[in-house]
Amino acid sequence: MNSANGKIGLRGWLTHPNTGLLARIILGCVFIYASLDKIVHPELFAEAVYNYQLSPEAAVNLVALWLPWLELLSGALLVLGVWVHGSSFILSGLMLIFLAALGVNLARGLDIHCGCFTTQGSDPMTILTLFRDSLFLVLALFLFWLYQIKRVQVKFSLSRIFQQDNSKQASR
Amino acid sequence: MKRSLLQAFGIILISGTIGLTVNGLRPDGIPWVENWQEKVLNKQLTGGLPAVTLKEAREAYEGGYALFVDARDSDFFEMGHIPGALNLPVKDFDRIFPKLKEQLLAAPQIITYCDGANCETSVELTEKLLFAGLEYVEIFTGGIQQWKAAGQPVVSEPAGS
């Protein structure tokens, strides 16, 4: 990790457990925040899903009922350091789907609101939205790379804290 | 990779179960499947005010949890209306509303209607009711015409009986 002169290189910074922790907290909180308004207003979110015109009509409400909870659960697990492999995998997949949906509708020229963070229609879909979501995708892929490929230790993992607690009790 | 996929599958399953369970428990839950084309068309007809489809109006009627309010003049109301509906003609709103206010406030859901998709009095009535402070007011845009065409019950009795 450390280079010859004792300084940490870029690779060292990227694979440092604290970097992963920071990225987890940022991405997790973004998804938790994004899910709340959709959970409170399922009908309005269902309309946003319908407006994208990408989901079959019969699946619109089911997507609207399931997706916010998927965001909330994945975001919360990421922050808590539980099932980070699965949650970073899901968030990477979700961001890819969101980006594809945004791209298709921007190309179609549909004048609809994004529905990304609010269901109230004050969230227009622009090139900036595409840019913002690309950053989130990079963050999600980074976390997946960090924990799945580089196998960096998950710092402040709730599941590990419990495991340690249990093993301490067992050794008494 | 196997671990990631297994965890992802677990998260998908748990979130889906929570989402559908919470929706089933909350009073403003939405149905799993809806006719969105009709719903969006309704919204366009009502200028963005909340609207219900024939299916939703029928469910509300059969469930007995909605109060129907007929926006047409009393002559038309007496010729045939949805059983249990109140008559609140838009042109007499200021005179009749105070008499019906308590009943309207007590209703968990109010559904207004007029003749059909081409009349606007149910929209005007809904605007007035929302302005008067009532919350759950929706428009059945199909109106009495669609109601009758679907073979739903209609009664002929004077207003206020």
Task: List the defining traits of the structure above.
heterodimer; A: 172 residues; mainly alpha; 7 helices; 71% helix; B: 161 residues; alpha/beta; Oxidized Rhodanese, domain 1; five-stranded parallel β-sheet; 5 strands; elongated
Describe the structure.
The complex is a heterodimer of chains A (172) and B (161). Chain A has one domain. Chain A contains seven helices and no strands. Chain A has helices at 10-14, 17-40, 42-51, 60-80, 84-108, 127-149, 158-171. Chain B has 161 residues and is an alpha/beta fold. Chain B has two domains: 1-30; 36-149, Rhodanese-like domain (Oxidized Rhodanese, domain 1, 3-Layer(aba) Sandwich). Chain B has helices at residues 2-25, 36-45, 54-63, 74-79, 93-106, 121-131, 143-149; strands at 51-52, 66-70, 86-87, 109-113, 137-140. Chain A binds chain B through residues 39, 42-43, 46-47, 50, 57-58, 60-62, 64-70, 72-74, 77, 83, 85-90, 93, 144, 148, and chain B through 1, 3-12, 14-16, 18-20, 22-23, 28-37, 40.
